[in-house]
Amino acid sequence: MAAKQDPKENLGISIKKNDDPAEWYGQVCLKAELAEYAPVKGCMIIRPRGYFIWETLQHEFDRRIKKLGVQNASFPLFIPESFFEKEKSHAQGFAPEVAWIANKYEGERIAVRPTSETIICDSFKRWIRSHRDLPLRINQWCNVVRWETEATKLFLRTREFLWQEGHCVYATSEECEKEVLLFLNEYEKILKDLLALPVIKGLKTEKERFAGALRTYTLEAYMPDGKALQCGTSHHLGQGFMKSFEVSFIGEDEKKHVPYSSSWGISTRLLGAVVLLHSDDKGLVLPPFVAQNQVVVIPIIFEKNKNEIQDYAKKVWCKLDWYRPLYDDREDHSAGYKYAEWELKGIPLRVEIGPKDFEKNQVVVVRRDTGEKEFVLFDQLEQRIPIILQNIHDNLYEKAKKNLEKSTLTAESWESFTTIIAEGKLAKMPHCTESKCEEEIKDKTKGVSARCIPLEENSKILKNKKCFHCKKDAQATVIFGRSY
Amino acid sequence: MAAKQDPKENLGISIKKNDDPAEWYGQVCLKAELAEYAPVKGCMIIRPRGYFIWETLQHEFDRRIKKLGVQNASFPLFIPESFFEKEKSHAQGFAPEVAWIANKYEGERIAVRPTSETIICDSFKRWIRSHRDLPLRINQWCNVVRWETEATKLFLRTREFLWQEGHCVYATSEECEKEVLLFLNEYEKILKDLLALPVIKGLKTEKERFAGALRTYTLEAYMPDGKALQCGTSHHLGQGFMKSFEVSFIGEDEKKHVPYSSSWGISTRLLGAVVLLHSDDKGLVLPPFVAQNQVVVIPIIFEKNKNEIQDYAKKVWCKLDWYRPLYDDREDHSAGYKYAEWELKGIPLRVEIGPKDFEKNQVVVVRRDTGEKEFVLFDQLEQRIPIILQNIHDNLYEKAKKNLEKSTLTAESWESFTTIIAEGKLAKMPHCTESKCEEEIKDKTKGVSARCIPLEENSKILKNKKCFHCKKDAQATVIFGRSY
């Protein structure tokens, strides 16, 4: 491997993805300079190459939800303890992982927000008076803190993370449900369009539901190490939070009504999904649309024609300006070293320019995802590069989608269920959807949980089926698996 | 006043700007729906109309600094106490206003970041090896917490606020100084271009310097109530933080060197400046480029021609799509009520459409800043509206600039200094720049502080001047005033 050309620099991933996925994952995040561990345990620093992915996702998703009538706002980091207690199941759900402020209590404890339903609903009480104020669609991009006790995993499990949280209020449950699904679909779209990340959309079982929600919809992705990864959720909160925070509105009938609310979020966790899903033994593989540099231009310099080749390479670099190109003409590193470095850091396309290419007025274009080489004439660059980038994106998505499909298997019995699970795949089966049964399954399988009730599957009616585990009447087809 | 047409709704500001500026300011922020007080004392909620201003500023400034080579990243909210102690003057400066985390200490106290120099410099130690890694320009958009004990003022003094903090590292002090001034100038530009906010650029005296800085440059604005408002700062941090956090690089000479660092920030405090500076007794006046709605279209409906007028008004509304127009055809409010409401909320332009306008194929355009009316033909809208919006922006800026200039007076003696100060203006005088002298002035005048050493003024040489207060040799011309 090229990465081994200069062992002093410790370039390259020292372990294969299949041999030790956890160690491999950590090395990719660190060596591709996406993130690093912060001094305070459980926190992370997102480096510019990683933050670029988040920013790009943020800008595009923000644009899309604004078109749907969502407005951004900013709510405080600090939430009084009494606010949590107003919605009891919410308080219970979040209690173990709340961080508190030490000094200057002012009568009660102050939490660092783990999520903002309570403080936002408190504002909604003042903002909502009439049916004319509905629907109200508010979003914030912010940091939240959940004091995890399990081992830190960059992006995937950190005490502080960045996210957006949408909070909407509707006059009717039907409207609310409709938009809970609308934002779920928006998530599915943006994950596909930017991150090349295919997901299964589904409903969470009661046990896995958001604390305080009536229904939680989820997007579950399947990672190459056999674990499901929850990529986003959209909750129908019913009237629970609205009642607890005394939100009401005067309807067209001039009577007082209690509205319905929802919340929905995606976080920097998605960056972990991108790394896990697409990357390989050489390092990071990035979907082109979120890559800080989509192209790296590397002139291969010999003494002969040195100036001409550099001039030509710079012309190529300028022509590719739209693609956030990096120009690497460092003279103290070999071409091989540079190839390895930019493969490690996940630049989707490498453009090599040697003496022959200069003579032929062409370049060599090498794809990061497949390693495929192609000669492109200088005059064809503007036409060809966007097509290759789109092909990379499509290839990453299709590969992941095929893997998701072939790894989500339908169990025929409890025995076949355990076999599928043992193979590190996701198993679908008829299930009673009772929490007790789920807990027993989790115990028996050492950690397998209900990932979701897939929406597609459950449009078909389940007739006369029994839960494969407890033998009670099945309520739904449920996907089980290990998860992050 | 139109606002009084419907007293039940409590629309409009109940006090004049000149009579009680503090009460007036609070009412404008609340009633124009820019912000509200959060349940945890000292914190605020930024509502969509307020957040829009911040977002717009953020997007444009982010675009501009990226062109200058700045990259965004994200550093943790939590900083170990020991990090503060590494840079002593920094620790002392921030100690009184740090909020600490209560639970799970892990050996030492954990602070909620009041600013991020320490944690960012700790990363720089790992990121910087060679002169090739410099200059390094990093920025983050985030929240910070300073546990203020003085009374809360929305945007101007809150325990949590949003900001950007740029942190750069350079090989030489000269480069560092050059870019400290570059970002200061970028601030001046964006404040002018988006917020119509004129400022005096200057250097802080030793007493007013950022804790840990070698030099602090500042942008000082002058508010109509006679107080200066610090709008942004750019610090040359010298080698202090670099040495404390052991950041070094191997130079082209292959020797180890200590680099120089800078930091620079603007915050949601700027929203307070915008409100204070431009608004009036009717409510918010917003510079058009940061207004969520630049135009409100109001059809004036009588029974006659009702449908035709509404159709025409909607055509106008569609034609003005570029200007984020609001369409207000509520039938349960009078036109006068609507005028007052949108004046209160600061929409820069009102477009009225009555029966006569419909007949003449025109509209009435009313400027929020001056109240001036103008008839504009339908076919002229696209040409005329952007011109009027630009005129509003320019008028706000010029008015504020004139006021800044005529309120910054040169004292001829200590007596004239005290007279200027008593008139609520800014006073310029030769000063020794010693902290002790500044403290005495502050005591004598009940709160007047050195705002800055204006850059423009101090390009001229001070010869044989004495400090008007202590009579020692003057070191610089210094502007003094009361401040937020």
Question: Could you please describe the fold and organization of this structure?
Answer:
Two copies of one chain form a homodimer. Chain A has three domains: 17-278, 2-Layer Sandwich (BirA Bifunctional Protein, domain 2), CATH 3.30.930; 293-387, Anticodon-binding domain (Rossmann fold); 408-483, Translation Initiation Factor IF3, CATH 3.30.110. In chain A, 35% of the residues lie in helices and 24% in strands. Chain A has 14 helices and 23 strands. In chain A, the strands form five sheets. A five-stranded mixed barrel of chain A has the order 9-10-11-23-22, surrounded by four helices. In chain A, helix 2 packs antiparallel against helix 6 (173-195). Chain A is globular, with a radius of gyration of 25 Å. Mean pLDDT of chain A is 94; it is low at 1-8.
Chain-wise SSE layout:
2 copies of one chain form a homodimer.
Chain A: H1 21-31, E1 35-37, E2 44-46, H2 48-67, E3 71-72, E4 78-80, H3 81-86, H4 88-94, E5 99-100, E6 110-112, H5 117-127, E7 136-145, E8 160-170, H6 173-195, E9 200-203, E10 215-222, E11 227-236, H7 240-244, E12 249-250, E13 256-257, E14 260-267, H8 269-278, E15 295-299, H9 306-319, E16 326-327, H10 335-344, E17 349-353, H11 355-360, E18 362-367, E19 373-377, H12 381-406, E20 408-410, H13 414-422, E21 426-431, H14 435-445, E22 449-454, E23 476-483
Parallel strand pairs in A: 3-7, 11-23, 15-16, 15-17, 20-21
Antiparallel strand pairs in A: 1-2, 4-6, 5-6, 7-8, 8-14, 9-10, 9-22, 10-11, 11-14, 12-13, 17-18, 18-19, 21-23, 22-23
Helix pairs in contact in A: 2-6
